[in-house]
Write a structure and sequence with these properties.
Length: 1472
């Protein structure tokens, strides 16, 4: 045809019919050759050529068939080898047909077919299959059904069969046909490959005897001492060591005389006969030269010879020559030796020989047991290049290896044993802690540890392990653990390891000589590349059985492609799967871009995977996302480029103990199992759990209740048992609630079992280290720690207890042995704190209201209880509050309105008040019940709650009062007019709390209520406002109060109860104190909040509220000598004490101290016994001394026994400086203390007396800056004491007044009275001579000259003082508020004296001259008033004509003063 032009870079094709050959070509390459350019006539050949490999012809190739034994009727097996070209799908199978007569057999492998691949590295997995033997009319048929696809490759099928009963006919060679079917049973059959033909073995007549003659290795120094059979190892070259050349002695016995011909020996796989093999039959040579044939054997006839021996692999053909009829006889046993037979280098699985000769075939007979280290397995801890690895090699010696023998281990090239050879160990597998290959120790000491071995090495891959103390028994299996350094680079295939055992020959003493015993070669492992990174991020919990969350980071140095597999393995004992079934992974997360654990996000990622977990293994197989569009130029199937960081998370639970093989393993492999890279990561050590741990509170209060509230002092008992792993000597303890500790640094540790105090090596608030030996497995231990302080948080306590091997001062504790971390213990309850003792919480006597705090509660009396408390945890609505009073206390019914007593509600709610429909006001000055009045107009208009007083508790006028919020003053008030501002009228109440009504409800005694007295507000110390509650008795009878909460009490909110109680007598309290458990048992109160349904506690006060100190009531009175303000007066204290003095813990006191407290303003001098009291002898005095300080006087007696009697007998006179005025709270208190105690034993209150100033007045000139006589009038309260005394006059301080004695007028004072002015004081003193006196209650007057200041003085600052002093300078009467004259500039003056006109008896005429210094406008002065001294009476009057009168002067009724009214229309003219 015409020329064809092929253009560059253009793809061309052609189609042609061809004939497919019956088999793939073997004489030439299996390829097509394409040439371009030139033709047959061209002088030059083609310019271009290409070769394309041809597909293999789909036929079964290399089929072979053989029988494991050829004897007729033998129960053996047929073995088929073949190679398939095409895959065989699931549901298809293999069909083999062969000669008739074969039957099912069960003696080999239980009658089960063995189907395996012939490939070794890696070996493909053969799918699950079934194997059925059948037959047709002319053939035996074997059918193998496949349950999964069978990949192309070479395979071996071993089928248990029983040979036909008859030998194969002469001249017939059996034939077997092998077929692979895509679907079994299909008609016509669909072949996966064309059938293959295999020629089989003939079936022969059975040979009676065929065997190998073996003996025991002669271990004697002289072999002549051993049987002939046992000498063959030394004399014939017999060796049963793997891989070595040997000489084997065979024996046979025929059923019929022999015919000359081939004797065929078939050895197990692995044996190798020499090509020119040598056979020995001489009677003196078979068992070694010079030996005698054992009696059991017959010498070969001289007529029989061995013509040739040809060996090929495991088969030898020996040509036996003899004349007809001159051969071996039937029934005789003949022995012959075949030399130069190489043993297998490995222990074969089925070691059977067969022998065929003269038309007879033997049954398979056992090969000699190779001197191997059997049961061999080898496993590597880490196959990564360059790492220090631990190889585990399992073996079972054929011969004992005695002490002084050794094991020789030769690793493949590149491995090094030198680095850690001394750490090698040989462990007894039966006693291993874990199955092979994880075995790492023998707990019973049966293995050979490093101390039992001596390691020698050549610096490379060979090591010799000499047995120093123990032998290796041929009856045991061992595990050799040998540390090795892997080769520095990855290896393409697994290498071979060689191991041999040697014994030392004891009869050679000149040098150490060893004889080889057993040996083996075993395939090792391929060393793969190392992953760049494999790390565990963070630190999980280390204690046994702890839940752990892991996060790992991995980086592979190679790319990851679809179908690749990533495998993660945790150490033994971990489980990664979620639940007991399925393959879901527990807590799995993947944090890697480009790699997703779900196909749902495929458009965003090139690959995904579905993690599968089984046991301790997680497997990812990467899958390509079909919808992902990879960028141009990206390699097909690429998932992750090299060096991509992969992070993933898993959850698991630590095993109880540290795994023996404690390594995490991560590997990356291709789909065919080829490991591309891997890396191991050392696991963390697991601290074994302490067993049977419990923590319990151990310190109880007087009630038997445990101290279990937050912040309480307590004791804790820790109970636990050591784990099976022991050997510790120190115990570290940590306990906490949340982040707060139990203050361990103050604790003493008691060993409850050993009965001793443990030494503490470290004592910190949150950490305690004790010295305590724990060397007995499962030993029970109980340690009590006290005193401790519970944390200030409530909740479940957690405890960490760790045992350690060692401790020193520098490093502390070292090497954990056992541990339990954050083990839950007991619950620390919330704390119920009693608040405001003496103010919010009080116990006051009902019949003697408290006037001065702290109020007292008296023995044996009925008292009012107000209990205010605060819980650190919530008490839900409907739950209960329990109050248990001390012994002999009893709650009683209220005497007031129902609902008043024993109530509990929140005091400060900060919420909706309307839930409380009744308020109870309980106080000595104000009480009653107020009900919610939601219909009130005020409530409706203001939106604020109003409570109206209930009937029966109205005020004195019968008007109801209200409790309401007053918004302007930001206060809750009690008043009779809704919305009105209260002013302090009697019956009104005020609680100024601030904020708004919904922030502070009226239950607010913490701010305090005030009550009105009519003139002012007085703080109401005992006033409480409660919401109505309920009451029921508890298990302790009347001393127990159970209150159900109507609404939740939030944490930190004040709550309270109010009620009445009957108190115990002093004798009852003394008895309770002597019988009670713990200090103060007679006065401790228990408060608890609890769940109503089951009694579970929310909070407790652990009986830490010491309650109220009950006292004996002291009745007393005080009687002063003087009542004037700020005077020193004697004071008689009289009191009753009808029984002898005694108290709690003080049955017979040796001293007593009485404390007398005066009202505010009184002052006792430091020595406060009066002179008359001091004049008494010590034997007659009640008190030896009196010490005063401010308002208090302390009286001490060393003879308490004499203080017994009534107020007529018990009297003492004291000295006191009186108050400046009557105190607002005019109450005296007296309390006594026994024998130096700080706790009072008796208390009483008595009304004080009024402070009465001496009556005094002053009249004087009112003109500014004028000097004139000023007259003082006073009335002494009592006669001054005998002796000199004085009157002291003090003007208003710093106001400009001046006093002088010039012109002093004695008035009514005694004649001898003199006047003096102190040099440094602004005062005037009138001194009375000794013996002078003034009558008590009589008015006295005197005059002194006074210069007024030049400026006005305010009335409230214009007070004069007049004091009476005795001869010792003590003030005996006073008036500090004598009002001075009101100063002015009126221009009106009068003389100091009136003019006496005449005097006749009782009458006199007096003239008063009034001088006006300037004209005064009309109306400016309205009247003149002249008031006579006391006792004088004005009987008549007349005035100057110039004085403009309005009306006639007249006397004022009552005072007798003359009133001169002036005209409002006339001017007062200057003049006199």
């Amino acid at each position: 045809g015409s020329d064809i032009v092929f253009r560059p870079s253009v793809k061309y094709g052609l189609i042609s019919d061809i004939v497919v050959p019956s088999d793939s070509p073997t004489g030439s390459i299996n390829a097509f050759l394409l040439t371009v350019g030139g033709d047959d006539s061209a002088s030059e050949g083609p310019s271009q050529a290409a070769v394309a490999e041809a597909p293999r012809v789909p036929r079964i190739f290399g089929a072979s068939a053989r029988l494991a034994g050829r004897a007729a009727g033998f129960d053996g097996a047929a073995i088929f080898d073949f190679e398939t070209v095409s895959p065989v799908p699931s549901g298809g199978g293999l069909v083999i047909s062969g000669p008739l007569g074969f039957a099912t057999a069960g003696s080999e492998n239980g009658g089960v077919c063995l189907f395996r691949s012939l490939a070794r590295d890696p070996e493909p997995q053969v799918p699950a299959h079934t194997c059925v033997l059948g037959s047709s009319a002319n053939a035996t048929i074997i059918t193998v059904g496949l349950e999964a696809e069978l990949l192309p490759g070479g395979y071996r099928l071993r089928v248990p069969l029983e040979n036909p009963a008859d030998a194969t006919a002469a001249g017939v060679t059996p034939q077997w046909e092998l077929e692979t079917h895509e679907v079994l049973g299909a008609s016509p059959p669909a072949f996966a490959d064309l059938p293959g033909i295999a020629w089989g073995d003939r079936v022969e007549q059975p040979m009676p005897v065929a065997e190998i003659v073996s003996g025991e290795l002669c271990l004697e120094e002289s072999i002549s001492h051993c049987d002939v059979v046992d000498r063959q190892y030394q004399l014939t070259g017999r060796s049963d060591r793997p891989g070595e050349r040997s000489a084997l002695i065979f024996a046979l016995s025929l059923a019929a005389a022999s015919e000359p011909g081939p004797l065929v020996l078939r050895a197990p796989e692995g044996y190798e006969f020499a090509t020119e093999c040598n056979v020995t039959i001489g009677a003196e040579e078979v068992f070694g030269e010079g030996t005698t044939l054992p009696e059991a054997y017959t010498a070969w006839p001289n007529s029989v010879s061995i013509a040739t021996c040809r060996g090929q692999d495991s088969q030898a053909v020996i040509e036996v020559a003899h004349a007809a009829g001159a051969g071996l006889l039937a029934g005789e046993r003949y022995a012959f030796r075949v030399d130069y037979v190489r043993n297998p280098s490995w222990a074969q699985a089925s070691g059977l020989f067969t022998l065929d000769f003269s038309g007879e075939a033997s049954a398979p007979f056992e090969a000699p047991g190779l001197w191997t280290l059997g049961a061999a397995s080898l496993a590597a801890q880490d196959t990564t290049q360059g790492v220090l690895n631990a190889v585990s090699l399992r073996f079972a010696p054929t011969h004992d290896v005695p002490v002084q023998g050794y094991l020789k281990v030769v690793a493949p090239d590149g491995f090094s044993v030198a680095e850690a050879c001394a750490e090698a160990s040989i462990l007894l597998e039966a006693s291993c802690d874990l199955p092979f290959p994880l075995c790492s120790g023998n707990s019973d000491g049966s293995g050979l540890e490093p101390g039992d071995l001596r390691c020698e090495h050549d610096g490379g891959s060979e090591a010799r392990l000499h047995l120093l103390t123990k032998r290796l028994s041929n009856a045991s299996t061992y595990v050799l653990r040998l540390p090795v350094r892997n080769p520095a680079s990855a290896t393409p295939a697994a290498g071979t390891w060689f191991v041999a055992s040697f014994r030392k020959l004891p009869w050679i003493v000149t040098s150490d000589t060893f004889e080889a015993l057993d040996s083996m070669e075993i395939d090792g492992f391929r060393v793969n590349a190392e992953a760049s990174v494999f790390s565990l991020n963070g630190y999980p919990a280390f204690n046994g059985r702890a839940a752990v969350d892991w996060e790992f980071t991995a980086v592979f140095q190679e790319a990851l492609y679809a179908s690749d597999i990533i495998t993660f393995q945790a150490p033994e004992g971990y489980t990664l799967q979620e639940g007991e079934t399925g393959t879901a992974c527990n807590g799995h997360q993947t944090i890697t871009e480009g790699l997703l654990a779900s196909a749902s996000a495929c458009p965003e990622s090139p690959c995904y995977f579905v993690p599968e977990c089984t046991g301790k293994t997680m497997r990812w197989q990467l899958q390509l996302c079909p919808s992902y569009q990879a960028p141009l130029g990206t390699a097909t199937g690429l998932c992750l480029v090299p060096a991509t960081e992969i992070r993933f998370a898993l959850s698991s639970t630590n095993p109880e103990l540290t795994p023996a093989w404690n390594r995490f393993v991560l590997s990356h492999s291709s789909i065919d199992g080829f490991v591309l890279s891997s890396r191991t990561l050392a696991g963390y050590r697991i601290y074994p759990l302490l067993k049977n741990f419990s923590a319990e509170l151990n310190l109880t209060n007087a009630h038997g209740a445990r101290f279990e509230a937050q912040g309480s002092e307590s004791a804790v008992r820790l109970n636990f048992a050591a784990a099976a792993t022991v050997g510790s000597y120190y115990i570290a303890i940590q306990g906490r609630v949340g982040k707060q500790s139990f203050r361990l640094n103050g604790a003493i540790a008691y060993d409850d079992y050993q009965g001793k105090v443990l030494t503490a090596r470290v004592k910190l608030a949150d950490y305690l280290v004790l010295e305590r030996e724990m060397t007995v497995p499962n030993e029970n231990i109980s340690i009590t720690l006290k005193p401790l302080q519970n944390p200030s948080l409530h909740g479940i306590s957690t405890w960490t207890v760790t045992t350690y091997k060692t401790w020193n001062q520098i490093q502390g504790v070292r090497t954990v042995v056992n541990q339990i971390i954050d083990a839950p213990g007991f619950r620390v309850l919330g704390y119920v704190a009693v608040q405001g003792v003496g103010s919010l919480t009080t116990l006051t006597d009902l019949s003697s209201p408290c006037l001065v705090g702290p109020c007292a509660a008296y023995f044996g009396r009925r008292s009012s209880l107000t209990l205010t408390f605060q819980s650190s945890v919530a008490t839900p609505a409907g739950d209960e509050v329990l109050v248990v009073a001390p012994p002999n206390y009893a709650f009683t019914a209220s005497s007031g309105v129902e609902g008043l007593s024993n109530t509990i509600v929140p005091i400060e709610l900060g919420g909706d008040l309307l839930t409380s429909r009744l308020l109870v006001v309980n106080g000595s000055n104000l009480s009653g019940a107020w009900a919610l009045d939601s219909e009130s107009a005020y409530a409706a208009s203001s939106g604020q709650p109003v409570f109206q007083q209930q009937r029966g508790s109205e005020d004195e006028a019968g008007e109801p009062r209200y409790i309401y919020w007053h918004n302007m003053t930001r206060a809750w008030v009690i008043g009779s007019t809704l919305g009105a501002l209260v002013t302090g009228a009697k019956g009104e109440g005020l609680a100024p709390v601030g904020g708004s009504y919904d922030e502070k409800v009226p239950l607010v005694p913490h701010k305090g209520w005030y009550i009105g007295t009519g003139t002012k507000w007085l703080k109401a110390l005992d006033l409480r406002v409660f919401g109505e509650g309920t009451l029921s008795s508890g298990s302790d009878g009347a001393r127990s109060l159970v209150m159900k909460v109507g609404r939740e009490i939030a944490p930190g909110v004040l709550a309270g109860a109010s009620g009445t109680m009957a108190l115990p007598t002093l004798d009852q309290v003394v008895d309770a104190a002597s019988l009670g458990s713990g200090e103060g048992a007679e006065r401790r109160w228990l408060l608890q909040t609890r769940r109503t349904s089951d009694g579970a506690l929310h909070a407790s006060n652990d009986e830490l509220f010491m309650g109220f100190a009950l006292v004996a009531q002291v009745a007393f009175s005080v009687a002063p000598a003087l009542r004037a303000p700020l005077v020193r007066s004697s004071l008689v204290l009289a009191f009753d004490q009808e029984t002898r003095l005694y108290g709690i813990g003080v049955p017979v006191p040796t001293s007593v101290r009485y404390e007398l407290q005066a009202p505010s303003g009184f002052v006792f001098p430091s020595a406060c016994l009066s002179p008359s009291e001091l004049s008494k002898s010590l034997e007659t005095r009640l008190f030896a001394r009196c010490s005063g300080a401010a308002e208090g006087a302390s009286l001490v007696s060393g003879r308490p026994s004499v203080i017994k009697g009534t107020s007529e007998d018990l009297r003492v006179e004291l000295i006191v400086d009186t108050a400046p005025e009557t105190p607002a709270l005019n109450v005296w208190t007296l309390q006594y203390y026994l024998q130096g105690s700080a706790q009072r034993s008796g208390y009483g209150e008595a009304a004080g007396y009024e402070i009465a100033p001496m009556p005094a007045s002053f009249v004087g000139n009112t003109q500014l800056g004028k000097e004139a006589l000023g007259y003082f009038t006073f009335e002494p309260s009592g006669a001054p004491a005998a002796g000199r005394w004085a009157i002291r006059v003090e003007p208003p301080k710093q106001k400009g007044y001046e006093l002088t004695c010039l012109g002093f007028r004695r008035g009514t004072l005694p004649k001898a009275t003199s006047c003096s002015l102190p040099l440094t004081e602004d005062a005037l003193v009138l001194n009375l001579t000794s013996g002078a006196s003034l009558a008590a209650g009589s008015a006295q007057a005197f005059g002194v000259r006074v210069r007024n200041p030049n400026k006005l003085v305010l009335t409230n600052e214009n007070s004069w003082r007049i004091l009476l002093l005795d001869g010792a300078g003590n003030t005996i009467d006073t008036n500090y508020g004598v009002q001075g004259a009101q100063l002015s500039t009126s221009y009106i003056e009068v003389p100091e004296d009136m003019q006496l006109g005449y005097s006749s008896g009782l009458s006199a005429s007096l003239t008063l001259l009034v001088t006006i210094s300037r004209d005064l406008h009309s109306g400016l002065v309205s009247r003149f008033t002249l008031e006579p001294p006391a006792g004088f009476t004005i009987e008549g009057n007349k005035t100057s004509a110039e004085l403009p009168l309005a009306t006639a002067p007249a006397l004022e009724p009552g005072t007798g003063a003359l009133s001169v009214p002036l005209s409002s229309e006339s001017m007062l003219v200057k003049g006199r």
